[in-house]
């Protein structure tokens, strides 16, 4: 293999690194555990309502 064949690897990943480094802080910051807990709670409410009215 010549060095010319593998020269695009670092360049192709450089855009992803730049994208993740430039994340702005204007969005809502939430802990992933909070999101999982909210999803479980919503699922529990849906299942409870399904059981109550079915």
TrEMBL record:
Component of the protein translocase complex. Heterotrimer consisting of alpha (SecY), beta (SecG) and gamma (SecE) subunits. Can form oligomers of the heterotrimer. It is found in: Cell membrane. GO terms for cellular component: plasma membrane. This is Preprotein translocase subunit SecG. The chain crosses the membrane at residues 35-53. Keywords: Cell membrane, Membrane, Protein transport, Translocation, Transmembrane, Transmembrane helix, Transport. InterPro entries: Preprot_translocase_SecG, SecG/Sec61-beta/Sbh. Belongs to the SEC61-beta family. GO terms for biological process: protein transport. Its main location: membrane. It comes from the Archaea. Residues 1-31 are cytoplasmic. Involved in protein export. The function of the beta subunit is unknown, but it may be involved in stabilization of the trimeric complex. It is a single-pass membrane protein.
């Amino acid at each position: 293999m010549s060095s010319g064949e593998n020269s695009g690897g670092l360049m192709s990943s450089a855009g992803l690194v730049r994208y993740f480094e430039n994340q702005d802080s204007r969005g809502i910051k939430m802990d992933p555990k909070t999101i999982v807990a909210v999803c479980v709670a919503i699922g529990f409410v849906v299942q409870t309502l399904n059981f109550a009215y079915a």
